[in-house]
């Protein structure tokens, strides 16, 4: 099992702390979603000016940069040029670091109809595919926002090449937001799922429709069943912890959440064998 974390969970850590902590806690890679005060990491000094040194530091630590998580929002007409610039900048970083994925959002519909949003996304994806192919990188669209259900994600993927565009299955969102059965998600999207995000939560009984994040295993997301489905289907991708500390400052510190994630996930295979799988 290959474990990674997004830097969304450690917004105060500098690069040195990120690398040292990843090694100390037993991770295999890091997914960059911001670096301290800079969300676009290609503008941060370790990637803009000291890129060669940063690559060497990851190689010495035997860590992979698993994904560059962008702010690309495919249904936004207003963001099209910004989206394309982000894509080009992250594709270059992927080429240099040997990183296979750039994360993107479908985005919120706002006042647009779904078909209008799909047309906007299709136009942007068509423009992006040559860049992705040239860089040997896959754009992975997260099950998020108004594209959380497998039916809606399939519409977004229509007409795209599996070589250039895939799915990031945030295993939390379809289950928590929609009650979508994991078997349904995998049956619909499994052939396009290239990457996964993991986090746990419980419904917030004081606010219907809301939820609160919890340490792994302290919520009710069916991780053992999800893991079994992935293993039975031959998934060999990353299991990436998305602890949303940057957006929710009341969450526990990464020094507590990150090692707890590794401990929980490393125990999943043995727990799955003992239970006989799904």
UniProtKB/TrEMBL annotation:
SUPFAM superfamilies per record: Xylose isomerase-like
Pfam family, one: AP_endonuc_2
Annotated InterPro entries: IolE/XylAMocC-like (IPR050312), Xyl_isomerase-like_sf (IPR036237), Xyl_isomerase-like_TIM-brl (IPR013022)
Gene3D superfamilies: Divalent-metal-dependent TIM barrel enzymes
Annotated ranges, domain Xylose isomerase-like TIM barrel: 20-267
GO MF terms, alphabetically ordered: isomerase activity
TM region positions: none
Keywords, alphabetical: Isomerase
Name this protein carries in UniProt: Sugar phosphate isomerase/epimerase
Organism, scientific name: Paenibacillus oceani
